[in-house]
Amino acid sequence: MKLTCLFIFSIILSIGCQNQPGKQNDLTPVVNKHFPNTLVNKKFATEKLIGLTTDKSDYLLSDYQLMDTTMAAEWSGNTVKFMDSVHFVSAYQAWCGNDCFTSVFGRYYFADTLKVSFYTDSITRSGECEAPTVYTKSRPAFDLFLVKMPNGSLQLNQTKTTTP
């Protein structure tokens, strides 16, 4: 009897320890694919870095287009580039190397037609403020609402507003 119980226990234990197909953890955020992403592969100049803090803030996105390549050496400031349909980089860039260069790497997705959710994954600092990369996986997402301004620029707002 003891031998039979031991045999049944070992069978149950071996079945329970086997890999179960289809039970894999997927850490990718759920994205509703039916909302159009109007930011893919676009780069904008901004007043401040997106995702550096989760403080309530609005962001004005101006077109970033250098018509004359000689002007590239003159321009410095904050930009955001939507690398693909999921990733963004918000960074300070300048033509000189004597500065503090901060870059925010993260993910974004459209939660509805105007609501964009941002996740900050890491923050790097180089140049005069060089520091180890800070990984921010525990930082909560923040939502911004996309508004097209009359002058053609875009704005990401903390609250849902209509176009003026």
Count of separate structural domains: 1
| Percentage of residues assigned to helices | under 10%
From the spread of the alpha carbons, the general shape counts as globular
Which residue ranges are poorly predicted, with pLDDT under 50 across at least 5 consecutive positions?
20-32
**Helix-strand pattern:** HEEEEEEEEE
Structural class: mainly beta
N/C terminus separation: 82 Å
Q: In order across it, which strands form the biggest sheet?
A: 1-2-9-8-6-5-4-3
The portion of residues forming beta strands comes to 35-45%
Q: What is the typical, i.e. mean, pLDDT?
A: 78
Q: Using the CA coordinates, give the radius of gyration.
A: 23 Å
Main sheet: strands, sense, barrel: 8 strands, antiparallel, barrel
Q: What oligomeric state do these chains adopt?
A: single chain
Count of DSSP helices? 1
- Please tally the β strands and state the result: 9
